[in-house]
Amino acid sequence: MKTGIHQQPLVLRPDELPARDRGTGAHTVSLVTSPRGATGFLNGITTFEPGAAIGHHIHNVAESVIVLQGDAVVDIDGERTPLRVFDITFVPANIPHHFENASDSAPMKIFWTYASVEATRTLLESGEHTRIDTEERGSAASPTSLVHEVARITVRPGTDEEFEAAVLAAAPLFQQTKGARTLVLERSHEDPLEYRLVVGWESLDDHLRGFRGSPAFQEWRRLIADSVAALPEVTHFRNVLTAF
Question: pTM to 2 decimals?
Fold first, then answer.
């Protein structure tokens, strides 16, 4: 499939992917993960054998679940609620919860989504703490911890619209570059002439050697040349903590 974009679309078939035995009668298949290109969320499917449950736990980010098959019970901070097929839950970060199969004879299945690739799980009874994207079995790929290029850019008075249009025009230049995962432009509330451009890269080399050494970088600089007051001030960051 040819798109001109570095990251490629995928079609995932759960029955062809490895399942992880949760050890409690539940089995999980991870679907969209950071090694497969996820940048803003993770998802997957967990199947519960009759009567199975997973331990009470919390996540550092919000989670939404939809029941795909069977009858379930969700326990959210001690409040238990029966769920049917296509019922949906939303649990904010750091709220204790777990799911159970309400049937002692039929399987139950849920589709889950976490609101960040930095999602973690902490089991309350044991204190075990893991990243969701390190739990996948049978994958040779490692979770991707993005390097965020943070460029502080000041524009000339009266050129804000021109600059924003230039960044929009330049977005494909970034997206077509190897290792580029995300691009976000933010504007300062206190100083409307100041912007922050944040680009997520798979590695520092993808930015410094790959993009900066390419014709795309020269075109990027050309597009913004007439609107910026000075060269962007660029620093690089990695995620240390996502608390909620």
Answer: 0.90
Quote the DSSP letter at residue 175. H
CA triple 162-166-168, angle to 5 deg: 120
Judge whether 141 and 35 are in contact, CB under 8 Å: yes
Q: Quote the tokens at residue 183.
A: 């691009």
155 contacts 187 by C-beta, under 8 angstroms: no
Cα-to-chain-centroid distance, residue 42: 6
Are 148 and 197 spatial neighbours (Cβ–Cβ below 8 Å)?
no
Q: Please give the span between the terminal C-alpha atoms of the chain, in angstroms, as a whole number.
A: 36
Q: Which helix (H) or strand (E) holds 40?
A: none
Q: What is the rounded average pLDDT of the residues 17-28?
A: 94
142, 34 in Cβ contact below 8 A? Answer: no
Distance (Å, whole) CA 166 – CA 176: 16
Rg (CA), the chain: 22
pLDDT tens for 74-100 read 999 999 999 999 999 999 999 999 999
Q: How far apart are CA 8 and CA 6, in angstroms?
A: 6
Q: Choose among 102, 92, 115, 123: nearest CA to 49.
A: 102
Count CA atoms within 13 Å of residue 70 on its CB side: 23
